Amino acid sequence: MPSRLDNDLMLRALLREPVERTPVWMMRQAGRYLPEYREVRARAGDFMTLCTTPEYACEVTLQPLDRFPLDAAILFSDILTIPDAMGLGLSFVHGEGPQFERPVRDARSIQRLGVPDPEDDLGYVMDAVRLIRSELDGRVPLIGFAGSPWTLATYMVEGGSSRTFSRIKALRYEDPVALHMLLTVLAESVAAYLKAQIEAGAQIVQIFDTWGGVLTPSDYREFSLDYMTHIIEALPESNDGRPVPVILFTKGGGAWLETMVGSGADCLGLDWTVDIGDARDRVGDRVALQGNLDPAALLAHPEHIREAVAGVLASFGQGSGHVFNLGHGITPEVPPEHAAAMIEAVHALSPSYHEGS
Amino acid sequence: MPSRLDNDLMLRALLREPVERTPVWMMRQAGRYLPEYREVRARAGDFMTLCTTPEYACEVTLQPLDRFPLDAAILFSDILTIPDAMGLGLSFVHGEGPQFERPVRDARSIQRLGVPDPEDDLGYVMDAVRLIRSELDGRVPLIGFAGSPWTLATYMVEGGSSRTFSRIKALRYEDPVALHMLLTVLAESVAAYLKAQIEAGAQIVQIFDTWGGVLTPSDYREFSLDYMTHIIEALPESNDGRPVPVILFTKGGGAWLETMVGSGADCLGLDWTVDIGDARDRVGDRVALQGNLDPAALLAHPEHIREAVAGVLASFGQGSGHVFNLGHGITPEVPPEHAAAMIEAVHALSPSYHEGS
């Protein structure tokens, strides 16, 4: 018998089963826009300490749930834990984002990379998942996550964030075999990592393909989507007596939804540059959709936020298969009351789209 | 009788008339990847002096034509000349890009903005156009250009470059009337500016909508495309006895091509995230297409560049209506011989797509 789950709206929506209202969560909901998060972050000292200390990770994961009636928790962590466990030496430089001390740039350094053991090398993540599940106590499901192989590779080759992706693109043109080697070891690592998160208690997983959208259409298939498809194939379809749905989110990938449907994901995440109603027409009933309010809409007055939420709900239309979310992470300058206004609007306005279901 | 034009391939391709081979030019072809450009830039001292001194602007405009068999020249200038002429105080900070001393952030500062007089306030641009036309002496056509109202507005409100566009998006949600006021004065300014460039001798014009792709689909129509459409309506269809084609380039706008067709543009620019063959199927014979090699492909060895060029040409397929270009500006680290390899490949491989035409 599966463990207790008081609110399974999100699971049902992901599986396109009837729901009473549209479930809602926010990417980066445990983040800098919350004063209580900034307080813990200051206490921890730095960002990696937050990630690697299960008690801190658990505390900040639960903060937004104590404030807002959200329908899911998402593990507090970072997509770059895997390359860090591979030995690249991750640090976060204030104002400059992530940096790797030992980036990989050629076939030789790629060949040296091994697949991290999730329980040995990333045990702090699995401990956090277990602790969060225990503290959540069945309130809402817990989302686990990982970066896509392509997205992780961009950071590993560039050495950090990039605007032009010139190093990894040079590698793609100069030595595509080496890049495929890198993506292969990353796909194995991500699959093992997500499997372990599921075994530790993650009830939904999301693959963040933050940089898939910088590729050409055929390179997206070859260097990003194919690897995510392999990962999804490797994941267990159920755990603890319940299906474990997979969400695939390629930022900037709105033009390629038809192709992404073939990945085996249960749900596709949308950024704000597509109309969710058009997206629904294009994917039909083959997958659920998650999104897609422009995070910048949360800078508006609450009455305008409500209008913007109404627009997304109306565009998706009647029936299940929609998980309300932002089209990207919530930004630090958003007042928490504005996030509250969005969530309230979903609660208030979405039931009429599920009547008779 | 129109003035002499030895090479009108680009004009014919833009009008979808038969050509012997696909014309080719590169966005930012007069730029930092060329040592002779860097030499002039060093001589001029700073970037704005290059733009505001017609002799320098002319010299660097012609440099890539002396090196490569390109089918068009593009005026050397910057899209931010208009806001500078409006009094915002433009400067280029090394490594940080453009900055405005006096950004506009509210209705009051927007109301104070006037439409710059192209010959009085931007006379240096018109002088550069006249000088370049005279020095070009009919070799190839000269492309004039401007930023789109939305794109200019992003810099004017943010105060410079942005990753999140949070200030202009806050304005869009908080005071859309003020934003429309700003876009209206910019649309008038851009129309007057492009008209003056055409009268001074620009034979083609391109509107750079660099940041239209960060909008939602409906906001793109309301805050970017509508204003570009008004500008195109205001431009003369011909000058000096020849049509003056208009190219509209919205980076990240590949999903919206069907809507952009209604703008009245003769040609749509494509970035590298769309397949140009798919794009052609979608727009039919209503417009020509420009693009769309990934600029990063120029980091590869010349033999791979040739393959990449072959891919774009094959994807577009038989017939006219294609102007070969990169999907965005050429980047500073590209060796000039790699640009040469791309251009040679277009010359060598494209004639077979125009046989019998």
Describe, in plain words, how this protein is organized in 3D.
2 copies of one chain form a homodimer. A 7-stranded parallel beta sheet of chain A has the order 1-4-5-8-9-10-11. A two-stranded antiparallel ribbon of chain A has the order 2-3. A two-stranded antiparallel ribbon of chain A has the order 6-7. With 357 residues, the first copy, chain A, is of the alpha/beta class. Chain A has 16 helices and 11 strands. Chain A is globular, with a radius of gyration of 19 Å. Chains A and B meet through helix 10 and helix 12 of A and helix 10 and helix 12 of B.
Order of helices and strands of chain A: HHHHEHEEHHHEHHHEHEEEHEHEHEH
> Measured on Cα atoms, how large is the radius of gyration of chain A?
19 Å
Number of continuous helical runs of chain A: 16
Unreliably modeled segments of chain A: none
SSE layout:
The structure is a homodimer of 357-residue chains.
Chain A: H1 9-14, H2 35-44, H3 47-52, H4 54-67, E1 73-74, H5 81-88, E2 90-93, E3 97-100, H6 107-111, H7 118-121, H8 123-136, E4 142-147, H9 149-158, H10 166-174, H11 176-200, E5 204-209, H12 217-234, E6 238-239, E7 242-243, E8 246-250, H13 257-260, E9 267-269, H14 276-283, E10 288-293, H15 302-316, E11 322-326, H16 336-349
Parallel strand pairs in A: 1-4, 4-5, 5-8, 8-9, 9-10, 10-11
Antiparallel strand pairs in A: 2-3, 6-7
Helix pairs in contact in A: 2-4, 4-8, 9-11, 10-11, 11-12, 14-15, 15-16
